[in-house]
Amino acid sequence: MKNITSNCERSFIIEALSRGKRIDGREIYDHRKVNFFFGREYGHVEAHLGDTKVLAQISSEVVVPSSERSTEGFLIFNIDISPMASPAYETGRLTKECIELTRIVERCFRESRVVETEGLCIVAGEKENNLLNLCYNFKVWSIRVDVHVLDHCGNYIDCACLAVSAALRHFRRPDIAISGDEVVIYDILDRPPVPLSLHHLPLCITCSFFDSGNLFAVDPSLEEESVMRGRLVLGVNVLKEICAIQHNGGVPLSKDQINRCAEIAFVKVQELTSLMDKGLAVIMLSVPNAAVKSTEARSNSWVRLPPRRVFSVFDGRVFNLALINSSKVVEACQVPCWLGTRTDDTSLGKALEDIRAQSFTEKGKAS
Amino acid sequence: MPQKIHIRLAAHRVNASVAVNRRVPKIFTPGQVITEQNEFMRGHGTYEEEGFLKSSVAGVKEQVNNLISIRPLKSRYNGEVGDVVVGRITEVQQKRWKVDTNSRLDSVLLLSSVNLPGGELRRRSAEDEHMMRQYLQEGDLISAEVQSVFSDGSLSLHTRSLKYGKLSQGVLIKVFPSLIKRSKTHFHNLYVGASIILGNNGFIWIYPTVTNSEDGVGGFVQNLEEVVSRPERETIARLRNCILALTQSKMMLFDTSILYAFEESQKYSVPELLVPEAMVDVAILTQDRLSMAENS
Amino acid sequence: MSKNRELLSKIGLRLDGRRADELRRIRCKLGVFTEPDGSAYLEQGLTKILAAVYGPHQVRGNRSKAQHDAAVVNCQFSMAVFSTGERKRRPRGDRKSTEISIHLRQALTAAIKTELYPWSQIDVYVEVLHADGGIYPACVNAATLALIDAGIPLKEYVCACTASLANNDVPMLDISHQEEIIGGPTLTVAALPMSGKIVLMEMSQRFHVDHLQKVLEKALQGCRDIKHILDEAVKSHIQDVGSSTGWANTT
């Protein structure tokens, strides 16, 4: 079942675009509102791009590496566009859309080496020593990224990349210690988990082309997607590096058009990355590294979240924070961040202070 | 039964080309500019872009007054009214048969454009509709003539003549439609003892010559009981192999070329004719005779 | 170990002795099969591809696919199980082949004048006999030849080429398998070389945007070069066939 657009709607969209306007009131270079929702677990992020929703969930496990690459860990993507997102999609892994999205995400994050797979190695034995049981003793991390397109309202590619990027930055894997042949994997409650080392962070910017390729808009909505003739997906990072390009058919493009899109993509990726930075800063505020490193924090047993939920109303919006122990450290929290709206860090910090104070008074009362 | 098996290396493959050096017309390839002037009309195989008339296929130019078209040397069959075709029934529908004619869309044979048994002109009744599968069913071969071309390019056929109709005993060969030479008649009773229908669509039908043609039923009878004699069958087989030889060397097929090939092939036995060297030999000899006939 | 090896030596030669802007040898042949409407065989270096085209014909199977205003282009890419160093388990159906099928379709649809054939279908089957890098571009080039052989109207040739960046500075044309393994970004471009329009572009691994311009230009140059080679081959094939038929049916 395909989304059918009537002819007058079609001509209206194109007519509007030719005057530099879009039906939802955006400018042609504007993205829709970007929101991130961070889950309670590390590496659980739901990215919203307008009404398009994509969920990314990262999990890790210790596995035996492949025999050819015994010193490299795995970064596995598992991408699903279910019929839940839109009735246009069939179930199954090998649909056209699913393959397309999987390949672009893999190009962006795996082939451009966002995560150093060698860095995911835990124990790399020498091959000579165990010819028989090959790499039985070898251990590497396998980082698995599950991406689900929950609601498709246009441009799920950009949205999926936002979700994966944010999830990779949000994710923490359990800490490990190696003593001789033994590897101890600490529970995240015993030792603060460690983030992945990321080399760079690409994001995808989709440019859609209309008519015979002369009209152009960033981040097409569902209506625009049904009208557009072709699109160019650029995976770029803030270092002005191109990590992936995908242009599929539809309208042929000239070299100049591609260069222009690349220019636009770099501006957009800076905007989006700084938005994501802000969102993650708020989340990570709740897990201050310095406090974690202090012996006090370590000696205290970490409490599974949430020990108590404290709600704080700030700026007309509810922050839902889970708080913590006597060391005055906010252990973890869940903050719905409306990143599209202007929330500056200082006022957020202030809000957190309020919440902390509130929580300790509550604790004092209880004891 | 012992059999001769020929095994040869790919490197020793026979070059089947029998090209003769002649004046070569200008060859156009896709995207090539034919003319910069815009007073010409664009025909098949051309398109207009930025004021230029460009070619969209690889082939040679044909010009009729102001109409320029490029004819590819090989393509699916493009039907024209009056063409003789051989086709295979693929579907029986309401009041029509669908016929595969190697065209880009299946052709249509309407119930109203066939001669029904028992009378030349009569209304098609409901019984006739029910009987359609008795007349022609899926898989049957027919010979027919193109009656008209629909706007989407599919063909409408008719068999309103005694020479058209269902084909019974014989051999079908499929060749590229471009190899069939257009001529006045595509039905030939060859003196060697077999008849041939050179369908414009590249389907060739070889069958034993019928002597008694008084059964005026519009050709819906299929006499499968009659045994075709061995010499007749050998003739048909030889004709088939000769046509294959000519096809492999990309030579035009018409009555003279087929007859010449048949005569030149006499030094080989019928199975031997399938050996690549023999095929090229026959093709070359035929080519020589044809050019000799042309020059004299 | 592979990292020590250089893509481009100091005197500007690549591992197989080519210069940075040289293509691998291309050899091709049209009309290799008799059953399909058009067929072609193409060698690009050691990469060997067979392509066959059927159609345009009536839409078979799922009739609802038929379009009232254009032909349906159906592409199937498969790799012979013996085409790679390690024996492949499945010739087609895995994610990579499905992706190439999709991309092939996109590149070819941009060139075929599909609007001439409503309700029809054009099938393109591509088989890789020997994979030695640059599979996708070789497939596009072979499919173009097969389409021309089938007499299907095209806007112009659609050619594809890969380009890479050596030593972070020099753009390199037509990447072989060896060079793919060593690494470096690979930009694949399928283009209509005469008008310079890009119909498909994909890239893996990263490089700075400043290099994009010159790598892209190099890839487009490669497409133009390939077009000339293919054009020569088509013309000589047509001449050959035309002479055999005696240019019959022509004036």
From TrEMBL, chain A:
Residues 32-174, 200-266 form the Exoribonuclease phosphorolytic domain. Belongs to the RNase PH family. GO terms for cellular component: cytoplasmic exosome (RNase complex); nuclear exosome (RNase complex); nucleolus. Its main location: cytoplasm. The keyword Heme does not apply. GO terms for biological process: exonucleolytic trimming to generate mature 3'-end of 5.8S rRNA from tricistronic rRNA transcript (SSU-rRNA, 5.8S rRNA, LSU-rRNA); nuclear mRNA surveillance; nuclear polyadenylation-dependent rRNA catabolic process; rRNA catabolic process; TRAMP-dependent tRNA surveillance pathway; U1 snRNA 3'-end processing; U4 snRNA 3'-end processing; U5 snRNA 3'-end processing. One of its GO terms (molecular function) is mRNA 3'-UTR AU-rich region binding. Gene3D superfamilies: GHMP Kinase, N-terminal domain. This is Exosome complex component RRP45.
From TrEMBL, chain B:
One of its GO terms (molecular function) is RNA binding. It comes from the Eukaryota. One of its GO terms (biological process) is regulation of gene expression. GO terms for cellular component: cytoplasmic exosome (RNase complex); nuclear exosome (RNase complex). The keyword RNA-binding applies. Residues 82-160 form the S1 motif domain. It holds the Pfam family ECR1_N. Transmembrane segments: none annotated. SUPFAM superfamilies: Eukaryotic type KH-domain (KH-domain type I), Nucleic acid-binding proteins, Ribosomal L27 protein-like. It is found in: Nucleus. Keywords: Exosome, Nucleus, RNA-binding, rRNA processing. Its main location: nucleus. Belongs to the RRP4 family. This is S1 motif domain-containing protein.
Automatic annotation (TrEMBL), chain C:
GO terms for biological process: nuclear mRNA surveillance; poly(A)-dependent snoRNA 3'-end processing; rRNA catabolic process; U4 snRNA 3'-end processing. It holds the Pfam family RNase_PH. SUPFAM superfamilies: Ribonuclease PH domain 2-like, Ribosomal protein S5 domain 2-like. One of its GO terms (cellular component) is nuclear exosome (RNase complex). GO terms for molecular function: RNA binding. Residues 22-153, 157-221 form the Exoribonuclease phosphorolytic domain. Belongs to the RNase PH family. This is Exosome complex component RRP41. It comes from Zophobas morio.
